[in-house]
């Protein structure tokens, strides 16, 4: 997405700032690295709503006690290919990376591995964890519950969360195939971002408190499911699938009963549930067979004709291009981000970002 650019910063400096800010909140080195890694992954690929913009919120939640800085995470392997991770009300990012690591270990042994995570918190972009599996040669999937921000199809109020679905698959001669999508029309963080910079939203993605369509981020009360007003039954069904996998298998509350992420209560843990699935392609066919098949699929896909002035892209192509550009030019910050990071630097006594 395009944005109003007030400044740019290198990924290295942004990561340094994130780790230092988290350490000021008594977060240990491993967890701070996991958070910075996830947020940088998202922002380098252009998803700032789930990247750099989230750090101030995590700091408030840590300072308020909603998120435990040093939780006692406990993993239990229940069957050869399944496990449960209690995240101890800590940051969702180290929980997500540990869960996907455990699932990879089981997939290496048994062909597949699945881990349900309970007592967690917001974990950023789901694609970070699916991507970790693909980087290691496995197919990965990640799902997560979220508080109610999305109307049911033909419903009058929010019921599901944005409930992301992420899938990544390894590609031998290139970047992974990557799908990372909310089951809502857009993420709620996008509304917050547009509200902060006073920018008009696209049509048919949000409604006001009377259920009427609006493009004003200041009057947006809830999101429409993927498919909008006419075909939102598809997005609502996908969101329900995510609820079952993430909340029911982890024993956590579903989104309608969760405390709001952006509410006033920064003391009470929210109890978020995640679900991760990893598959070893070599457990189904010879590895070479898989690699030839996905390469042929992507070659055919990218060769398809496009409408005038456009280009056919595979899932992930846009993100890899954005990542290359931002690695070369720096990660852009809008005016609201610049102000938020300056306030954090002063409040936490962290060296400010060197902005250009």
From TrEMBL:
Protein name, entry field: Ldh family oxidoreductase
Provenance organism: Modicisalibacter tunisiensis
Family (UniProt): Belongs to the LDH2/MDH2 oxidoreductase family.
Signal peptide annotation: none
Keyword Heme listed: no
SUPFAM superfamilies linked to this entry: L-sulfolactate dehydrogenase-like
Family annotation (Gene3D superfamilies): 1.10.1530.10, Hypothetical oxidoreductase yiak, domain 2 (3.30.1370.60)
Keyword flag Methyltransferase: no
InterPro entries linked to this entry: Mal/L-sulf/L-lact_DH-like_ah, Mal/L-sulf/L-lact_DH-like_NADP, Mal/L-sulfo/L-lacto_DH-like_sf, Malate/L-lactate_DH-like
Keyword terms of this UniProt record: Oxidoreductase
């Amino acid at each position: 997405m395009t944005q109003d650019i007030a400044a740019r910063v290198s990924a290295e400096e942004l990561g340094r700032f994130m780790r230092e800010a988290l350490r000021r909140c008594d977060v240990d080195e491993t967890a701070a690295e996991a958070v910075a890694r996830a947020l940088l992954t998202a922002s380098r690929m252009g998803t700032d709503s789930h990247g750099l913009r989230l750090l101030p919120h995590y700091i408030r939640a840590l300072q308020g006690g909603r998120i435990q800085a040093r939780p006692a995470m406990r993993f239990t392997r229940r069957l050869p290919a399944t496990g449960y991770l209690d995240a101890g009300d800590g940051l969702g990012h180290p929980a997500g990376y540990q869960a996907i690591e455990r699932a990879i270990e089981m997939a290496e042994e048994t062909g597949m591995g699945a881990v349900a995570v309970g007592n967690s918190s917001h974990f950023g972009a789901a694609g970070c964890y699916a991507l970790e599996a693909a980087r290691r040669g496995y197919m990965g999937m990640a799902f997560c519950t979220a508080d109610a921000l999305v109307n049911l199809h033909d419903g009058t109020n929010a019921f599901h969360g944005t409930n992301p679905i992420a899938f990544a698959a390894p590609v031998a001669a290139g970047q992974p195939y990557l799908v990372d999508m909310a089951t809502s029309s857009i993420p709620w963080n996008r509304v917050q971002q547009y509200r902060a910079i006073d920018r008009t939203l696209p049509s048919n993605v949000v409604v006001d408190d009377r259920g009427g369509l609006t493009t004003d981020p200041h009057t947006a009360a809830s999101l429409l499911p993927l498919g909008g007003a006419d075909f939102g039954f598809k997005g609502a069904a996908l969101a329900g699938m995510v609820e079952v996998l993430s909340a029911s298998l982890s024993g956590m509350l579903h989104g309608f009963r969760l405390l709001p992420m952006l509410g006033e209560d920064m003391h009470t843990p929210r109890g978020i549930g995640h679900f991760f699935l990893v598959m070893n392609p070599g457990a189904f066919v010879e590895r070479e067979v898989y690699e030839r098949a996905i390469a042929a699929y992507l070659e055919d896909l990218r060769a398809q004709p496009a409408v005038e002035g456009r280009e056919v892209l595979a899932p992930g192509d846009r993100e890899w291009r954005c990542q290359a550009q931002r690695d070369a030019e720096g990660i852009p910050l809008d005016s609201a981000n610049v102000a938020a990071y300056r306030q954090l630097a002063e409040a936490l006594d962290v060296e400010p970002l060197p902005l250009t």
